[in-house]
Design goal:
The protein contains 6 helices and 5 strands, in the order βαβββααβααα. The protein has 161 residues and is an alpha/beta fold. It has a single domain (2-160), classed as 2-Layer Sandwich (Nucleotidyltransferase, domain 5).
């Protein structure tokens, strides 16, 4: 599994080595957001645009981004009652870090970041955001980049294959 990180996140985690493989629909993308003056992590699966938001992450959590990403993916699959292996082997020691490589995924992430920012503003602060509800909403946000399908439907479609 490849985790493609934005430059902003790479500057924080400073990986010793970057993978050089080309982009793939099985890649995950990671972006560092700053909302309400707190660091937050946004993960998006390239093939389905299934997006996960994690608020208030510490620098030490970010330095262990591989482990954190795997835990967040597993948490959201469980929350959606989906099989743990639907995105393949989620072992942090098998995860590779690379630079971002797909502008359409990054564009989707920017849209999801805006939704997260609006959710924080609507709640009044990051501390008051219902993260489970926000992630539920992100999983169902229609994206033009994937034929106006909901990410959750695309993920569920993977179970039928």
């Amino acid at each position: 599994m490849i985790l493609r990180c934005t430059k902003k996140l790479l500057d924080v985690i400073r990986p010793a080595q970057l993978a050089t493989q080309g982009p793939d629909d099985e890649d995950w993308y990671a972006n560092l957001l700053v909302l309400d003056r707190r660091k937050c992590l946004l993960l998006t699966h390239a093939g389905t645009l299934f997006t996960i938001f994690e608020p208030d992450v510490r620098a030490s959590d970010l330095r262990a981004t591989k482990k954190l990403a795997c835990e967040l993916i597993e948490r959201e699959l469980l929350a959606e009652s989906l099989p743990a292996g639907i995105f393949g082997d989620l072992r942090a020691d098998e995860l590779l870090i690379a630079k971002t490589a797909d502008r359409s995924v990054l564009g989707c992430m920017n849209d999801m970041a805006l939704l997260c920012d609006v959710a924080v503003a609507d709640a009044g602060s990051l501390a008051l955001v219902d993260v489970a509800s926000l992630n539920h909403r992100l999983h169902r946000n229609i994206n033009s980049a994937r034929n106006y399908d909901r990410p959750i439907d695309l993920v569920i479609g993977r179970t039928a294959q």
